[in-house]
Amino acid sequence: RSLPEGFSLYALNLKQKQPQNGSFFRLSRFSYNRFRLYEEWRIEGVIEEGGKEWNLKPESCRLYSNKSPEKTWVLIRVIDCEHNPYTFNIKNGILILKPGLFSERTLSLFPQENNSQIPLQIIKWKESTVYAWNPAIRGIKARKSTKAFSFCKSSENNNFKFIETLDSTALFFFEGKEISPEIGDLIYIQVIKKSDFP
User: Fold this and answer.
1) pTM assigned to the model
2) Of the candidates 156, 162, 154, which has an alpha carbon nearest to the alpha carbon of residue 130?
3) Higher pLDDT, 111 or 150
4) CATH no. of 117-190
């Protein structure tokens, strides 16, 4: 989504149902504009199944900020969000998220071949350095120099090399001669271990 002087991206991560703990979600919004720089909302709560739609009941809403994606996020605000429920359903591969803290959104579902892959959205690049975002990257383990592959709107390639994770951002190095991604293009990384909502 384009914003004046910036952009915003969304990610909805779901934790599978456990026998006694139920199902959990984390809805995140990454945004950038030249006035407020980088911000990330992290909204966590429980999922209640309701026929054709699922109800998302927030229990924690936190706003983080930083001046650059390679820095650690700083918590700047915590709000009471239990009165802002969401509902979502899926139609033709599109997830429709109905109003809560944000207005209604339609989100594309990321294609994912197996559970050991994590898709990240490109948020910034400079020369051969690429930054990509997904809150699910926090707490995971991946081998340094692991090859990553992308689904860029302009082209597909496997010339990305994973360097390190930086909170909810990952740093990659592009080994080709040219790179022309767009904000929101996907990079997939193979991980060794996933963790639950770190």
Assistant:
1) 0.78
2) 162
3) 150
4) 2.40.30.20
